[in-house]
Amino acid sequence: MTEASGSDPHRDDRRWPRSVYGEGDEPDPRFSLANERTFLAWIRTTLALLAGAAALDALDLPMPDSAQRLIALLLALVALMAALQAWRGWARTERAMRTGAPLPSAPFAAVVALAVAAVALGLVLTALLRSP
Predict the structure, then answer these.
(1) Do 71 and 122 contact (CB within 8 A), yes or no?
(2) Where is this region: Disordered (predicted)?
(3) Helix, strand or coil for residue 32?
(4) Are 97 and 31 in contact (CB under 8 A)?
(5) CA-CA distance, 126 to 3, in Å (whole number)?
(6) Across residues 109-128, what is the average pLDDT?
(7) Where in 45-98 does DSSP place strands (E)?
(8) How many CB atoms lie within 10 A of CB 64?
(9) 73: closest CA among 58, 57, 60?
(10) Element (H, E) at 91
(11) What's the confidence (pLDDT) of residue 131?
(12) pLDDT over 90 at 1, yes or no
């Protein structure tokens, strides 16, 4: 039997997701814990983006309602993308460490960064174009 098929007496076959834990060998726990911290950082980013979207939607700002709702919606969508990146990035990195493959890149992170920049630009332009 191979390591991946269960000959390791320390392997817990109940761990989920099997698509990650069912492959390769156990990496150094420090690397798995660092990967988990990165996952949690993405989750904190998601929560901050959702809080920003909710606050923007709830406030009565001196900007057109349609612009305010659009920016809040964009923030919520970016939060969704960040949550997906958190899970996808954790799983891909953990699987790579377990199988000895090169660590994956995170192109989705650039999409999230660009979307946050676009929302920030929208808020700046709205503030600048607001009549006194």
Answers:
(1) yes
(2) 1-30
(3) helix
(4) yes
(5) 58
(6) 87
(7) none
(8) 12
(9) 57
(10) helix 65-99
(11) 65
(12) no
SS3 helix, strand, coil % of the chain, rounded to 5? 70, 0, 30
Only one residue has tokens 């939607």, namely 57
Nearest CA to 127 out of 76, 62, 74, 81 is that of 62
Burial-class residue 49 by CB neighbours within 10 Å (0-12, 13-18, 19+).
Answer: buried
pLDDT digits (tens, 9 = 90+) for 60-95: 888 889 988 998 999 999 999 999 999 999 999 999
The confidence score (pLDDT) of residue 2 equals: 46
Amino acid at 31: F
Q: CB of 91 within 8 A of CB of 19?
A: yes
Cα separation values, 73 from 56, 99, 122, Å: 9, 39, 12
Residue-level length of the chain = 132
The domains of the chain are located at 29-129
Diameter of the chain measured on Cα atoms: 74
Residue 7, pLDDT score? 53
Dump pLDDT digits (tens) for 17-60: 999 999 999 999 999 999 999 999 999 999 999 999 999 999 98
Residue 8 is predicted with a pLDDT of: 57
